[in-house]
Amino acid sequence: MKSIKELITLIKECLIGKSLSRTLHNIYLSEIPPFYGNGIDYGAKNAAGSYYRFIDIKNTHMTYCDLYPKGNTKVKSINFENNFDLSSEAFDFALVMNTLEHVYNHQNFINNISKSLKVGGRLEGCVPFLYPYHKDPDDFFRYSHTALEKILNKANFENIEINKICTGGLLVSASLLSRRLSFKPLILIWWLVSYILSKIFGKTNNQNSDMYALIAFSAIKKSP
Hints:
Elements: H1 2-15, H2 20-29, E1 36-42, E2 59-66, E3 75-77, E4 91-97, H3 106-116, E5 117-128, H4 145-154, E6 157-167, H5 169-177, H6 184-201, E7 212-221
Parallel strand pairs: 1-2, 1-4, 2-3, 4-5
Antiparallel strand pairs: 5-7, 6-7
Helix pairs in contact: 1-2, 1-6, 5-6
């Protein structure tokens, strides 16, 4: 049943033009615990991102922040390269989806996010690993799973979980090369074949997780 549901999601997301790595990440997000309380999304102006269709934020109040709010007074204007202090707002959780790679002072950024959270506050995020250069406003880094763990540890987080998404040569190849195609039925066939074969052979391939397109991470802010 779970695999069938995932296949249906793959079909739907492919046909509306989403990438394979993002689709697999959204499938992952659909299975994480719900969010509660006051939350902040670093790098979003609203809930238009596809991940909002997969996470549970029914019992939350969201704050959004971005470098360019474009006149939206409901969005905090924050330069993530500089120090900022939102500790007085004491958020229950923070989202950092596909944002960290665009921040050069990444450790300072994560430190500031940590300060904005209550003790026990939850961080959920993701970064690309094998993905083309993309400016927004610039693109600086690709993080390995070990690098992310060190960055989060240094920022006073515990219970750190790092999950590799879109793993193995088949899925990574499908994720990267399908971006060059425009015929969605062909892309979909490629996705489905890669997904099914990776499910069949993934457990017997010891190197399957050594190649990945995206990393999801979560952590809890610990006491000082």
